[in-house]
Amino acid sequence: MKFTDVQIENVLAIGEAKLSLDTLGLAHISGINNDETSADSNGSGKSSIGDAISWCLWGSTARGVSGDDIVNTIVGKGALVSITIDDDGDFWRVTRYRKHPKGKNSLNLAHHDAATGEWIDATKGTTALTQKAIERLLGCSEEVFNAAVYSGQEMMPDIPRMTDRQLKLLVEQAAGVDVLAGAYEIARERMRKVAETRAQAQIAFDRATERHRDALASVERLNDQKTQWDTDQVTKIAGLKTQTGAAVKAFQTAKAELDDDGLKKVREDIVDAQEKIEAVQSEVARERDLAADLTQAQSALAQIQRRLASEETTAAAADRSVSAAEAALERTKNGVGQPCDDCGRPLEEEHLADAIANAETKLKAQRADRDKCIAHRDAAKSKVAAFERAVTAAQKDLDDHRASMTDVSAEGARLKNLQRELQIAQAARTEVERLRVAAQTIGKRWKDEAAAENPFNKMLKDADDTVVARAAELEKSKGSLLKAAEELGYAEAVAGVFAPAGVRAHRLDEATPFLNERTAHYLGSLSDGAIDAFWTTLSETKKGQLVEKFSVTVEKPGSAPSFNNLSGGEKRKARLACALALQDLVATRATKSLELWLGDEIDDALDAAGLERLMGVLEEKARDRGTVLVISHNDIAAYARKTIQVEKSGGRASVSII
Questions:
Q1: For 188-280+408-498, CATH number?
Q2: Domain 159-175+500-588: assigned CATH number
Q3: Pairing of strands 79-87, 90-98
Q4: Is the dihedral of CA 459, 462, 468, 474 positive or negative?
Q5: For residue 46, which of 656, 622, 658 has the smallest C-alpha distance?
Q6: 595 within 8 A of 87, measured Cβ to Cβ
Q7: pTM: predicted TM-score of the whole model, two decimal places
Q8: How many C-beta neighbours within 10 Å does residue 637 have?
Q9: pLDDT tens digits, residue range 168-180?
């Protein structure tokens, strides 16, 4: 994978730059800082080229600069980096903006259509999704990219002096073991979920097995019930057949016993008796009328007798009142000094005549009232006598009529007997009808039961269908269980692969020989083989046991038994060789070969001989990577094919290739 063209605008120190990075070989990036004459090339913006590439692809520089801090402070806006990538003949363009008038803060991805020659937008819905698409395009993560492409003085670790813990973390990260640890956790979580799925599948299978077993038991039970129904039905039909025969026979017997002629004769005799009785109905009506007249006369007599009794009582009372008035008159005539009947005061001489006159008047009135009551009593007596004669006459008329009436009592008794005979005959006929209906009903039941279908047939069919359906469910759940068990086996195997005893150990076992080979290669070039460095991940205890322990042993045979005994330049070479070897280990984790490498002031503190050997190493990298950019204060133009000059004026740097 090549980075063919880079366009930079207002990023860090660079104001505007366009570079073609396609197979530049070994190129020297030098700088001129016109803003600070005392700084020489420092602060000119040489490192901004590598930072711009890293920021465009990942949103952050290798040194951790991101956000608005990436924008050139003089302009304050319009930051843009666009990189054209050649992925084995397939061209892509990545463009990132910050505070840009048009692009705002966006990340864009475009694909070149070879057929039309146009750039087709391949940007995803969000920046995060677009970033993932770029990562898939590059075939590595940000950590792998920066570690494989960028080597700077600020980021170069003092590997030979590191402790076991520090070195372990560094090697594990370089070898991707830390990623494997994350993968192990993911694999374990997936294994847990698959185990849950398998457990659920087992539960579903057990449930399906139980349901299938229940369905089979239901079929067996229904078969027994069907057989029992058939047996019971035979008995029931036989019983109904017998009952039908008996009912028909009872009906026929009762019907045969019916005397239609006798019934006809009874009805004729009833009509004859009724006609005879109806013939004397006028006499009966006259009898009723005379009886009613007698009753009316008796009622009137009783009423006048009650009135006579009342009148006699009233007349007796009036007679007593007259006697009392006569006695009062005599008392009045006989006595001055007698109490007055009206006021109760003693009578005086001058009042006696008035009192006598008053008593006589009262006596006269009482006698008149008595005479009136006697007249009423006598009138009532006369009426009683008249009503008594009327009652006697009515009784005589009724008795005389009855004596002359035709006697129909014999016909009435005969009619009653005939009616009883008719009721008996009708009851017999009703019984015959009842027996007919009963025979018909029991016969229909016999016919219906004989034609009846076993109700368990449908239930049995449904149960059979259920067995088939549940067998299918059982087979499906069995398949799911087997699949889940298989997936669990795979998940357990994957977890085992990513477990500490799995691929991690294998990866570290591969990493150590690789690091030793690459370190020896670089030290052989940098020191003519005078310095040796050995990476180890195992150490032997006093008991002779091997334990995991990371270390780098550096020595110069014959003069320096350890790293601390080396000179400053030799230490620099050892650090550089270990760092480059570690960087090569990281680069092996990329799925695509990255044809770009950037070294930032890695030649610092090297003498002329060391610098020459380093240039040989970098020339080798240029042959391997296609383009190697070296930022240096030293004059290494003689070793480089091209010189990229960064010149800063007025706070903004321009870039040119010499």
A1: 1.10.287
A2: 3.30.300
A3: antiparallel
A4: negative
A5: 656
A6: no
A7: 0.54
A8: 13
A9: 877 877 777 766 7
